[in-house]
């Protein structure tokens, strides 16, 4: 186990992700918003992760989602930053901007503010895109995590994102 300030369960899962993707011959990328680099930090805690982890994009603002990951302003304006459409576009953008075989995107509301009745604090959306997969094969889901503080929501989101990076995760 690496010497880290990150929660042990996060680093343990990141290690599983690196080992499983190395075995599968896959490289990975992440596009993070509400997790602010937490998934990337966990992955890079693992020695030798550079042969699996290709790129991490932290696009916290809508402008950066549009500029770096090419998320359409129409998508952002119509569906909002915390939506399946935005997460899917972020994952596709991460694939296009990297050499990775698979990309996972995370966007959500960590709190304590920013939530609404429709999208309360703890609402996080995930999407996974795979190079060469049919573009209509959307793997995306919205989760409503317990609002146990900003750090708690971010940790739950990072764990979920890592699970999606496992080669045998459900499609």
TrEMBL record:
UniProt-listed Pfam families: CinA
Domain CinA C-terminal: 12-166
Recorded superkingdom: Bacteria
Gene3D superfamilies: CinA-like (3.90.950.20)
Alphabetical list of InterPro entries matching this protein: CinA-like_C, CinA_C
NCBIfam families in UniProt: PncC_domain
Protein name: CinA family protein
Record organism: Sphingobium limneticum
Source taxonomy: Bacteria, Pseudomonadati, Pseudomonadota, Alphaproteobacteria, Sphingomonadales
